[in-house]
Design a protein that fits this description.
Low-confidence stretches of chain A: none
Structural class of chain A: mainly beta
Mean pLDDT of chain A: 90
Strand content of chain A: 25-35%
InterPro entries (chain B): Leu-rich_rpt, Leu-rich_rpt_typical-subtyp, LRR_dom_sf, LRR_domain-containing
Largest interface: A-B, 34 and 38 residues
Number of helices of chain A: 3
Strand order of the largest sheet of chain A: 7-4-9-2-1-12-13
Radius of gyration of chain A: 17 Å
Organism (chain B): Mauremys mutica
Mean pLDDT of chain B: 81
Number of strands of chain B: 15
Oligomer: heterodimer
Shape of chain B: elongated
Order of helices and strands of chain B: EHEHEEHEEEEEEEHHEEEEH
GO cellular component, one term (chain B): cytoplasm
Protein name (chain B): Leucine rich repeat containing 58
Largest sheet of chain A: 7 strands, mixed
Helix content of chain A: 10-25%
Strand order of the largest sheet of chain B: 1-2-3-4-5-6-7-8-9-11
Distance between the termini of chain A: 54 Å
Largest sheet of chain B: 10 strands, parallel
Keywords (chain B): Leucine-rich repeat, Repeat
Amino acid sequence: MEQLVQTEVWKAQTLQELIQILHRLFSGDKVSVEEVQALMESYESNPVEWMKYAQFDQYRYTRNLVDKGNGKFNLMILCWGEGHGSSIHDHTDSHCFMKILQGNLKETLFEWPGKKGTGAMTKKSERVLEENQCAYINDSIGLHRVENTSHTESAVSLHLYSPPFDSCNTFDQRTGHKHNVKMTFYSQFGERTPGATVVSQENN
Amino acid sequence: MEPQEAAGAAGGGGGGAGLLELELPRRGAGEAGAAVAVAAELEARRSGETRRLVLSRRLSGPLPAGLARWFPALEVLDVSGTGLAALGAELLELPRLRTLLAKNNRLGGPGALPKGLGQAPLARSLRVLNLSGNRFAELPAALLGLRGLQSLSLGGNRLHSIPPEIQALSSLEFLYLGGNFITSIPPELANLPSLSYLVLSDNKIQSIPPQLAQLHSLRSLSLHNNLLTYLPREILNLVHLEELSLRGNPLVVRFVRDLTYNPPSLLELAGRTMKTRNIPYAPSDLPGNLVRYLSLASNCPNPKCGGVYFDSCVRQIKFVDFCGKYRLPLMHYLCSPECSSPCSSASQSSTSQSESDSEDEAIVAAHRMQKVLLG
């Protein structure tokens, strides 16, 4: 008879607790995607706990580093003003978890473009993620674009990337043409990173 | 946009001197919140020191008339999501109001904004106005008197157009008009000298007027989800542009061959000659309609040409890399098929591709013209 392995179900009561449990989960060699996703979903967003990381820019979305995960992962908060969106991008062979802390984000999945990179990219699906939901993607699943489609509300999301990466490819939807971009942090651990307002390379 | 505040902060601060912020949160889904009860509660908490007032309670009537008397130091008023159908005279006496947030209400009918806004202290003090998520079918004229306004949002309303009078908002830096039904952009929008952030996404815009390239301060232009097939060549002049969103537009991908080139009329040829040879004329020398016609000459953008055209021109699409984008279709107007457009001035463009395109285009256009003449 097979032994059924019980996947641990963690509940994070606060953001600090979430970070602590994440450190524990990532301390070993193997991490279960389902466990991390369930943990991220279990945390009920409490703005008072993450307010200091939620630094908005009026022109585009921002990436605000929360925790470096002992080198195993990066945890960051993204702030999306009304209408702000990302390019279509890949995840440089890493796992990407995205949890909504406030507002809504639309995620559109795309197929990888063909070898020649010509022709419009194929949309696979789209969905609107609501508060506290957590999505997961990696390069084998596909590419995605994330946008705050609201004209009245801003949005905040919590992202975990493992292993950490600081560059990725962005894709032009009309042609499949790709372009490597370096990603920067608008703030780190709640402190605005000076001189980090680099000209955006991620236009879409 | 204004800095994000924590949602769900505890409502109703304690009393006492130095109180800066006062919040009356929503009281449960069912309660309508009689206007009288809200007025009574606000009056009870009146203070000459309160700077911010956030009302989240659903209001069944207008804001209380005593607002300015009770909170004379008010700088920030947030009445978003209260269901207000009109903002009235109670605003006109607030001497120091800098930020007015009235998102997600029922504003938009006649009289949604008070008359006399342009003469009130608000006209000089107000910097930020957010009317997103309301029902405005046109930009309320009352707004145009807000000379000090730096940030205006009318996102998610029902606007069908932008009035040229918008140029009166001479201090405007941030203009959010996404999520409306706007079909065209008035060139007068380009007369806002400080505009740095312009959002026109999720509308029905078919073309961008070339004058928009005069917005020298523009850092971010949001045009996604519209009906654009190309952009004006002049957009390359926006040297400070760092963000440009164009997704969800039917931008042409391949070179669009020009439709027939109509040879110029005699009127056009005569007009061109007058302009290029600088033949002097006074308004008394010519009938009024010809004087007007001559004033409409457009310069051929080819720097080697120096010619002009009136109605008869060649349209060409050239693909240029710009602002982090790959091969944007830019529309060029030239005075004749023999003219070729100057190379793009965009810093990141791969001009070799564009140049070889342009030679092919010139050859094709010339052949077409021969066909027209011979055919």
